[in-house]
């Protein structure tokens, strides 16, 4: 496949870079992880996240659906009943999304998107003017999409401005290190991996990841989910990012593209990561141990020890046991061995504790202050 | 929506049942969780899993793709280039799948599928003859699909037999308790929630869950992933099952259907579960604590404590720290506070331990024998 | 292209036959014009005509549309809003049409269609049992279509019966001489070319020809109209018939098929006929002479001579001249040089004559009794 | 339906005009036949004819197909394999066609199209600037189509220029009288109805009429052919033209549109014309008389009289009779009663005459010099 952009054509097809960033803030790189290229379509989920923040989910949903399209990235069709693009990760959707990013003009909107991505990447990302100009030379297809959206009443800005801004957004220069950092933030629920700052709202992050899971690899999204199982997004410059929620962000770069317009080596790397490292969303570790570590007595008190990562199911086991009642007057809920706890589990445990307090002296050992929440 | 099956039409639309089964084997029920109904399309993922075991992934892939269709459950189209149905969860795919389940005839194949599901449900499930006969009365659409598959060279059995067998499979009687148990096995990576038995091969389980995630709710799969985020499958009798990997299996039953043919109250329940209990695949708990609990010295030895649920990313942190080297001669790797560990993490930790052993006296405290694996 | 029917596969691909029958009853033949083959899809327009007689246009229109499909002959889709096949000349439509032919069963219906075609061909046509049986062996696609129609509520008969009957209809043996005779009847407005018998009702004949013009050559109908300009229908045995209204019926037979399933030499012959003999519906002979041959005086009377083939436009010229008035007391309308006259022209001339009679002595010279009508 | 053009919205929906022009040059009008409106889509066949003259059929065919689309006039799709619009009468095709009209810029091309139409209408037609400007205000859909064509490599001009030029072309002011005159020229094989001037090349005229027959009424072309049977084209201002080859050109104007965007009263008028005046292409007058009027002897010579309108079929009857031989030495071929004769018939009669001359003294009575040709 050729890219139709002369700036992209001049790149060494054998280049290869890889970066893996964990939610703990550690980053591993291999090859030319600092080689810079244009972000292209990988900008779509980040622009989508920004538009969701600026415009709100409801307004976005009225403009762009969230269904896999079953067609190519540049399909020129809107939903027959609603006039919406099928999702925000095909070109039609990406243009509609830009329209809902706040900004005074194309340049300003592109600037805000670049700033947003810079915050995630941890360094200043800027538009590559040569790539931008080359984009504009071959923009008839996007012009067609923008005018189509406009004629369907789905675009407020002028088509020219939207296409110009999208060209700028696609021309932002990044490297694998940047993209892995950005992906790791999404893997971390939108929170920075190096501070407590929530860079992307949790609900928005979840929504964007969901759309990446079902629509991110265009008309191959279903097979990608089966064989790789990592929500992902590819760009025509030869990069692919992947986000494994709660674990890692991955970015690969290698310019040679396959028929679907995805990086040949990029796809291979993801398939290996999924197979060899079990980085697959549907991969389950059958539980060897319960979240309920132990229920015992110590010094006349019942000690209930929880352990590991506590979500709803884990908290339920505790609640279930509590229903059976405890013989002692005093109860100690020991969270020392718990690593993380989510909101639903926190609420449930707090409720149980309050209920127990009616009849028992109840204390909680929570050295990491997990029950206090974030 | 009407179902076209007179047996289904006679049911009280206000019936409601709910069951939630955790991967720990606990099951919660509400309403008419023991009211029996026909499994209908919810049989599809389980028949698919059996066909994958009997025929192998490669053979299945040659017959059925794994892409969302963007169309209705009964769409009468095959991929123009390959002649395959788009996925195994639309009717065309379900019929093609049946063809690859071993068996001497339609009855035998249906029997094997019923037995397979019985193992997961933990009780004997049988075909409801009245429902089966009513299915056959309105089977023209499935007959059309089966003949189409046959004419495309994608069916070895006679179309009549395939349609007959599919009618039997859909007429198997279940209740919410059964379905939640079956879903919980999938949530548990295919392993029984009450014993160590691997009921569904892990790879097959992962594949089926992936297809449920992208294709399970037909042409609404994308929005289902965004708003609910639980791989699911609905049936025309009014049931929906959901599988949250590593956590729970859920089954709801309520006969009133919406326009898409999904249970109205079933959809509402799943939306609440997702929202209130954060049972969403893309929901991430930003890490409060590292998998690396502590690195300290005790009695002249370095003690490295890991904690929580250890996957690749967690093990990487340990490996990364190990690369920096340790000052003491003796090293203790303490896994006492680890709840579960997956294969990739196990391999990585084992490698690091072996490398450390070259220069250090290295011991592992692993009371639950997690490093020994299953 | 292969035909999927082993009886058709065994034919010498080099066979060639041609027959041209004029509306005057003359027939010219070349090559193997008496070589017999199965009529296949060329039976569709004749079965359509019979169903239109049995069921009436309104009933047929509720079941089958009359629009080009833009797809292949065996497309497996119905109109999304009405559930109708796009037209009667694709397989789905031909099956729906059969349902509206009167008859007690498949055999009887096929018998009636064979009899109808025999009347047009002028000899007894019968089903070739070997071809019929071979059709049934590869009927999955038609089974699919029939079941689809049934499931859409568009079929009263059992799908099996409809497919069986269609297989019989397609297996009727004909030769080029037969087909040219049949086509010539259609070219002659449905009237026999050798007697005054109206074999196909004029309105029905017009309707069927219209559908042949826009849908007869499947997804190549538009280009066929441009390059050939003759309403036509092809069959998979290698025959093509063409009907040029008012002029000729043509039949070509040569078994080698092109990609579209049309006879290679058949297409070539039609292209030559159209080009060399100007047998193109849109070919116009710019008028050298008016239908109004002369207006003169003879023996004190005004003599108005008409000539040639008089349709609406020709009669209008006469009416227009009559409006200007005539100076003489006596008027002679001379139709001696008129060859044919249609109903609209007859009505108009009669009206003018009656109007003239109010003020003039008006006589008509009409040796062929054209004004008396048929 | 609304037109999206504010200039069109302000027109009295009850206006009605009708004009019928015969190939003999007579024109009948009724109602507001001189009320002027914008030609809109009715310009398409005339611009197509001009592009065919400028660019040649082969070049046009490489850019625009000639197949019915089965979709709406403004469908935004190109053929997946060739990138061509389906035909020249949908908007995509009309834009592609403009690109092949010679001219220095949009204004010049529109000027040439206006001049071409002026020649047919017999008076100077000019662009209505108010309509043109209103067109430009709502041109997003056409912009989308033009950019799509450009991106598919099917457009040489700038999209802006093509859309601007098309807006001008659509804004040309006409009345029913004009349109009927223009249609009559097409009905007359491209020749002026008042002089011997060939205004549209015969081959091009035939091609354009063919496309009007199969594609002129968009996705209702098949039913239009069945019920009306007149190649036609409608415009969003409320006009419809029809061309019955060899007979008449018809134009109706009435602004109220139906769901398909066709004039409600316009459609009704055409249905009545077709039914009451038998103005249907597939309407056949079964021949009462042969083209061979008589074969007799007079003064020792055989006199062969032909009559009426002689095409291929008629000439064949003569040729057939000639093959049987004549007993006399002298033969007279009498064409006095022949009205018109086409090229194929002329060639055949000339050949037969030459053959007869080898053995007979052969003379031709041809007072209108029909055998000499045009």
UniProtKB/TrEMBL annotation, chains A, B, C, D:
It catalyses: L-glutamine + H2O = L-glutamate + NH4(+). The keyword Secreted does not apply. Residues 291-374 form the STAS domain. Its EC number is 3.5.1.2. One of its GO terms (molecular function) is glutaminase activity. Keywords: Acetylation, Hydrolase. Signal peptide: none annotated. It is an enzyme of class 3 (hydrolase). Substrate binds at residues 41, 91, 135, 142, 166, 218, 236. GO terms for biological process: glutamate biosynthetic process; L-glutamine catabolic process. The keyword Acetylation applies. It holds the Pfam family STAS. Homotetramer. Belongs to the glutaminase family. This is Glutaminase. The lineage of its organism: Bacteria, Bacillati, Actinomycetota, Actinomycetes, Mycobacteriales. The gene is glsA.
